[in-house]
Amino acid sequence: MKNSYTFVYTNLVIETMKIEDEIKSTIPIDIAKKVLLNISFTKNVLHDNFQELIKPYDLSGEQYNVLRILRGQKGKPVNMCDIQERMIAKNSNTTRLIDKLLLKQMVTRSECPANRRKIEILITQKGLDVLAELDPVIIQHEKFFANKLTIEELEQLNNLLEKYRN
Amino acid sequence: MKNSYTFVYTNLVIETMKIEDEIKSTIPIDIAKKVLLNISFTKNVLHDNFQELIKPYDLSGEQYNVLRILRGQKGKPVNMCDIQERMIAKNSNTTRLIDKLLLKQMVTRSECPANRRKIEILITQKGLDVLAELDPVIIQHEKFFANKLTIEELEQLNNLLEKYRN
DNA sequence: ATTTTTCATTTGTATATACAAATGTGTATT
DNA sequence: AATACACATTTGTATATACAAATGAAAAAT
Known about the structure:
The structure is a homodimer. By secondary structure, chain A is mostly helical. Chain A has a domain at about 60-135: Arc Repressor Mutant, subunit A. Chain A has eight helices and two strands, in the order H-H-H-H-H-H-E-E-H-H. The first copy, chain A, has a two-stranded antiparallel sheet. In chain A, a hairpin with a 7-residue loop joins strand 1 (about 105-110) and strand 2 (about 120-125). The longest helix of chain A is centred in the N-terminal third of the chain and has 26 residues, at about 30-55. The radius of gyration of chain A is 21 Å and the shape is globular. The two termini of chain A are about 35 Å apart. At the A-B interface, helix 1, helix 3, helix 4, helix 7 and helix 8 of A face helix 1, helix 3, helix 4, helix 7 and helix 8 of B. The first copy, chain A, binds a DNA duplex (30 and 30 nucleotides) through helix 6.
């Protein structure tokens, strides 16, 4: 099951090999493709692992992220557009996401007194408790992958990714 | 808009700083977190860029991937479970995805004569034409990012990602 | 030969992603 | 003060992701 990643990876590389002949540039197209797929794959592996971990806690990945943003506020309320701005997936639907967290009693929602357009979201004690329970699990997850590299290699990886992206 | 990535990135790192004090290990937790977020981000940037590119062609990302898999078969039909196995997102719904491609007349679907359980999917000429039109666009996309690194750096990045993942 | 098991696909349900339009509120313009 | 514009959120629709259950066909077991 988990091995199917490798399949796609090699499949797509092979499938597009011949295009390389057509266009010459400083960077060979197969290496350019490989890096791109490699990043997508790695992210998928991380994502699957993460989903597996939080499954028993009745939280989706995005719900978890929102709770993390709320905890980071240390009691200061946040409104919808603040949350949306800070979420990984920019265009997801914050209203419906908060609805779900409300049902689970992990957040509260109230009208902002200063500006009736805005809404104030706060994390509840129940939400904080679930996060606290999850903290060591998440750290375990992050270290599981990071431990395969040295500190120098991790910093190198960060630098290369930032250079690649920007 | 695109800058909101940076916001999340730094937000999450800051939000979890204090946890680092609690658990000591060979790899500092903030570097472990940073690498993980860095990979997710970079993938998101690539994904958004890709979506932007194929939008005018009336294809979703997964529909494009399936067409690529079909073209890679060079005329040999594929059945549903083959496609599912090779797709990036393992659990997506191949039946409904193929339905959409059928409506656009980019694939054909027929019962496998040797095994009536199976179904044979083939790419049509129209599908091939769209892919051919998209090829240079995709190459442009892949090289746009790759050109920011040297060949040596790209290979280094590939190695680090593979080591990190496996 | 009939029953059971496995395989390939489809269908259903819940949530997530993506984008556009609608609603209601505050601010600026005249 | 009335109108126009911008802001914050909600609602709607289409597609994608994730998983479980249902359907129907082939293979294996008895």
